[in-house]
Every structure is written in C-alpha cells, then in structure tokens.
Amino acid sequence: MKVNPQQLAFLATFLKRRSGVVIDASKAYLVEARLLPVLRQRGLDDFEGLVERVRSARDPGLEQDVLNAMMTHETSFFRDRSPFETVKRLLPDLLKRRTVARHLVLWSAAASSGQEAYSLAILLNEHFREALVGWSVRILATDISEPVLARAREGLYSDFEVARGLPVELRDKYFVRLQGKWSIGHDCRKYVEFRRMNLLEAWQGVPPCDVVFLRNILIYFDIPTRAAILAKMRSTVRPDGALFLGGAETMLGVCDTYDRVEGVGCSAYRPRSGPAAKRP
Ligand SMILES: C[S@@+](CC[C@H](N)C(=O)[O-])C[C@H]1O[C@@H](n2cnc3c(N)ncnc32)[C@H](O)[C@@H]1O
User: Fold this and answer.
1) Which of 167, 221, 245, 261 is the most exposed place for a label (fewest CB within 10 A)?
2) 114/212 same-domain check
3) How far, in Å, CA of 81 to CA of 103, rounded?
4) Is the pLDDT of residue 277 over 80?
5) Are residues 105 and 170 in the same domain?
6) Residue 178 CA: distances (Å) to CA of 114, 119, 175, 241
C-alpha cells in the first residue's frame, strides 16, 4: 500500500507538531512500513482513510497509535559504553559534593524500553552501592511513547535483548529468569521511575538533575527544536552535573552555552556559568 506525497506531507507535519520528529519526502517507504499495521488493525483500506481520520481529530487513540508507530525505539543495555564509563568516573566527585544533601537524581530523557535507565541502576549497584547507603537516589526515565514505557515498567527482556550490551556476569547478578525471559531485579527497579513525558511540552516534575542522558533523540529533531531543548536543559542539569548526548549528536552549530567535559571516550556537557552565550 502506497502513501502519496500529499498524505506523506500531512503525516510528516502531524508527527513534527506532536513530537518534534522530522521525516522528509525520501522516507515514504518508512511511513508505509510503520503505518501499515495501524491501517490493518483499524480496518482502513488506504492512507487516505488514515489521513482523514487523523485530520478529523475525532480519534485520539489513532493519533497515539500513529505517533507510537512512527517512533524509532532502538536501544540496548550500556549502549555505546563510554557514557557509562564516564558517569562511573564523574560520580565519586559528584557524591562528595552531595554529601550533605545525600540526594542524587539521574534522568534518562528518551528512555524507550528502559535499558538505558536500568543500565544506570546496574552501574550504581555495581560501583556505588556502599557509598549510596542512606542516600535518596532517583533515576527518572521518560519517553513520549506509552507502549515502550509499559515494556520498561515490566522490565522483562528477551535473551537477544540482554545479550546486546550486557555482560553475562551482570545479567546473572541483576536479572532473574521469568517466563523464558530476563526480569530486572528489585535492586535496580527500586531506583527507577518511568513516566510519560513529551520533551516538547512542559517538563513537569523534573527536578534539578545531576546526570542527564539525552541520547539518540536530538538526531530526529530539526535544529531549532534541538536548540530549544538544549536551552531548556540548561536549567535542569545542575551546574556541576553532566549532560550526555548520543554518539552521533553534537552541540556544534546548535548551542554554545555548555562547556565540554572530557570523559572516557566521549564528552559530557555542563551548563556554562555566567551570561549565556548567543546561539550561532
Ligand atoms: C532511539 S530511542 C533512544 C533510546 C535511548 N535514549 C538510547 O539511546 O538507547 C528514541 C526515543 O525517543 C522517544 N521520543 C521521540 N520523540 C520524543 C519526544 N518529543 N519526547 C520524548 N521522547 C521522545 C521515542 O519514543 C524513542 O523511544
């Protein structure tokens, strides 16, 4: 089933307005592949029917299904490793600075099915368990897409999913076998709180954060949207905290109000103190 240029333009505008995600005219095949199951499930004959239903705005469930289907949820445990190594290196100093408050907040800001947030929880358990006794530790994990968040809350992963990025020793230490899958254990779950949140909307209830993972999400946005999110992030990342972007994402040409902190095989970013520099 084919999507024509007008239908594609309508769906691209809808997606951009609702989520910030940009798709161009060369992505017709992607729209067709991702939305075909939505069409079938709704008994719609073609893309015109889908566009009409979305245009009429009478079916919020369909709008959500279209948005969810168009998202890329690719993720894995300890994806790219180096940001996690960098957190491990930065945390001792950060914990020293927080010894009075004994409060630590990490945020996985496009959490998908939860592997990123649980990897942070594993890292804390593996390397900082004793240091964090008596602390209040919170890993906030948010995403626009409710179905992936439901999976994340369930915390149940296939053999294939745990084999991607998770060493066997960590799998055996932090997961239990359940229904032929791997269920993340209480030691990690206790830190993590999943919540639906659209980065384009108000960031309600997001506290000042010590570490933010905003990875593999800006790449789907246009430059003004990236700049707006990074500007908003300045007041969320603590001045001595750290913001991580994905391996293919950069601040260059988007935002120059952060300082780069050299990490282990990657950089982290820290809001620059003093007057915010102008965006190029
Ligand atoms: C490719 S995944 C990244 C997962 C993880 N951060 C990683 O690097 O492995 C991108 C996620 O961003 C979410 N997303 C897309 N637009 C969003 C928005 N406007 N607000 C919040 N999440 C969004 C998608 O639902 C998807 O789960």
Assistant:
1) 167
2) yes
3) 25
4) no
5) yes
6) 17, 19, 9, 37
Residue ID of nearest Cα to ligand 1 atom 26? 73
CATH of the domain at 112: 3.40.50.150
Q: What is the CATH number of the domain that holds 61?
A: 1.10.155.10
For the beta carbon of residue 194, count every other beta carbon within 10 angstroms: 24
Pairing mode of beta strands 181-184, 175-178: antiparallel
Contacts of 247 (CB under 8 A, 6+ apart): 80, 266
Read off the pLDDT of residues 69-114 as tens digits, 9 standing for 90 and up.
999 999 999 999 999 999 999 999 999 999 999 999 999 999 999 9
Query: Looking at the domain assignment, is residue 255 inside a domain?
Result: yes
Position in ligand 1 atom list of the atom nearest CA 199: 20
One domain for residues 48 and 96 = no
Pocket mutation for ligand 1, best pick of 21, 66, 79, 144 (most atoms within 8 Å of C-beta) = 144
Which distant-in-sequence residues (6+ apart) come within 8 Å of 228 by Cβ? none
Domain that holds residue 62: 5-70
Is residue 200 in contact with ligand 1, taking CB distance under 6 Å? Answer: yes
Q: What is the pLDDT of residues 143-195, one digit of tens each?
A: 999 999 999 999 999 999 999 999 999 999 999 999 999 999 999 999 999 99
- Rounded distance from Cα 72 to ligand 1 centre (Å): 7
In a domain, 208, yes or no: yes
Please work out whether the CB of residue 116 comes within 6 Å of at least one atom of ligand 1.
yes
Active-site positions read 34, 143
- Specify the ligand 1 atom closest to the Cα of 198: 20
Q: How many domains does the chain have?
A: 2
> Ligand 1 pocket, 16 CB below 6 A?
no
Residues 58 and 118 occupy one common structural domain: no
How far apart are the CA of 111 and the centre of ligand 1, in A?
Answer: 6
Q: Average pLDDT for residues 59-77, to the nearest whole number? A: 96
Q: Could you tell me if 226 and 97 lie in one domain?
A: yes
pLDDT at 58 (0 to 100): 87
Structure tokens at 162: 């745990």
